[in-house]
Amino acid sequence: MIVSLALRNLKLNKFRTILSMIGIVIGVFAICAMGMVSAGFTDEMNNMISDTADTLTLSPLGEKVVGGATAVGFSEKDIRNIESATKSVTKGYDLVPYYSSQKPVTIGKEMTFASVYGLDSNDMSRLVTLVSGTWPKGGTNVIVGEQFAEDNDLRIGSRISFLGINGQEITCRVVGIMENTGMLTFGISTDSAVLGTTEWYTSIVGNNHGLYDSIIIKAQDPLELSAIDAAIEKKMNGKEDKDSDNTVMIINSYELMDIFDELMNMSSLFTTIISAISLLVAAVAITNVMLMSVKERTREVGILRSIGTYRSQILQMFLYEAGLIGLIGSVLGVVMALIVSPIFMMIMGLEFTAMFSVSVLSYVPLGVAVGLVVCLISGLYPAWKAANLNPVEAMSTD
Amino acid sequence: MDDAPVVELIDVSKVYQMKAGDVVALNHVNFSVKRGEFVAIMGPSGSGKSTLMNMIGCLDVPTSGTIKINGVSTTDMTDDELTEHRLNTIGFIFQKFNLISLLTAYENVEYPLILKYGQRDHSERVKKLLTMVGFTEDRMQHTPYELSGGQQQRVSIARALANDPTFLLCDEPTGNLDSKMSTQIMEILSDLHKQGRTLVMVTHNPETAEYADRVIVIRDGEIVAEE
Hints:
The complex is a heterodimer.
Chain A: H1 2-12, H2 14-49, E1 55-60, E2 64-66, E3 69-71, H3 76-87, E4 93-107, E5 110-118, H4 124-127, E6 130-133, E7 141-145, H5 146-151, E8 159-163, E9 169-178, E10 193-196, H6 198-204, E11 214-219, H7 225-237, E12 248-252, H8 253-296, H9 298-306, H10 311-347, H11 358-361, H12 363-387, H13 391-396
Parallel strand pairs in A: 5-10, 7-9
Antiparallel strand pairs in A: 1-11, 1-12, 2-3, 4-5, 4-11, 6-9, 7-10, 8-9
Helix pairs in contact in A: 1-10, 2-8, 2-10, 2-12, 3-7, 8-9, 8-12, 10-12
Chain B: E1 7-18, E2 21-33, E3 38-42, H1 49-56, E4 64-69, E5 72-73, H2 79-88, E6 90-93, H3 105-117, H4 125-132, H5 149-161, E7 167-171, H6 179-194, E8 198-203, H7 206-209, E9 214-219, E10 222-226
Parallel strand pairs in B: 3-8, 3-9, 6-7, 7-8
Antiparallel strand pairs in B: 1-2, 1-4, 4-5, 9-10
Helix pairs in contact in B: 3-5, 4-5, 5-6
């Protein structure tokens, strides 16, 4: 009966109820929509780069004169220096030098471009993961990225062909498929990659005078990356050297992740503040509406009290009202957020399926809970006031 | 316990502290109401009869002296204990009917039962009570706005009887009714008295007071006559 009284009063003052509900709808919607979109975005970013968050990517700077020609790359001597600098920090590391470039590739009758990589067959498993097939051990065997295979209808045993350095056509056999790393990655992005041994690469692109195009260093403990970074900087760039002055550019994926995390944290703090403000406004509106309701129903409260309704029941009645406004309002807000967030996510270039991650959907119960709690807190003072009315005085008001 | 008065006032005073000075609303009042009695309290407005009614109705407690309801003093009762008395021991009938406008006639009568038992009435008690005060079944679903003053007062009598109280407390029960309606309502109250109910009625109307066994006249907070 107490609940039904609360319900009937809300229905009686439909317009006022709806107005006060709009505040909480907007507040909860703001929290949920912003939270969901930013959670979806963070998820997507983490998926893209988390795998490579433990790497240093070294790119060569400055030209070298090798055998009378100028070229850019890491020499064997550079690699030895870099490795010794790394060793001075930790023993738990992988250092992989590799070749890379873009080459046209013919698949059936179609021609497309691929990122081609050449590295020692022992190093391959340190940088990429196979989803099927085997590692290429030599000859013209290659592995391709999952996305590349899908785009070009390739499977294990498929043939693709390149033009070799001497102009002859070299047909290669796909022996394995690599796991996707995503486009936003440091080092090797497998999405459009064809990867083979150093010898294979040399036969197609050449060996760049024996200079490697990049070096990837992975540390078992990502926290050591900064120290390794500094040691290499000091060794390679800090000292005057005839061959290598400012020879290396280092990208520390862990630090980038840090910066990225910080940016995401700042943006989520920002959205939280905006949502909190809108909820505060909603709370004030609800307190106001509830106080009006108490004032209007003073006589009713007096009657209820005089015929034997306990203080706690009057308190309950008004809290039910506030809670109902909160529950309905926040459910509406969450539903709106569920409709609008995917649209925003798609505008930001995320997949629709990004909606269904745990961190995004956790905003559903969170939104309802926050809306409900805000309403109950806003209703507390008016309800307390109603419960403590003097029945005799309350009954004599009109 | 059966011999104990239903209501007993021992040297009851009520003083309201105002900025302009204390106002003595009741001054050392003594009387008692026995089981089965119909007592009218008469007096002009400002005589203190409303204050008296509020204290008998457990809506207020005396400044000094003792009010005993069923032999138990209300002076040291907590708000919840006073509320429990209002729910179970006293049946209120007000001048302005004081029905809950959001509820139908049926629900108004059912309300005290729900408060007491925590569930809806399945015993047909509500229907019996409303039939007794002259309500037809379809009228029971009307809200107070759709009922005349006399009908509203009938609902409020039924509501007062819902929890089978020890006594009925009537505050000017015919004050807002025309003479024809007044007579009907007083007949109902008189019947209830004949069935053995205890009634305490506050009024300023000598005609309604005639239905009572005993009339207590109060003026300026003191009992001036008892007949």
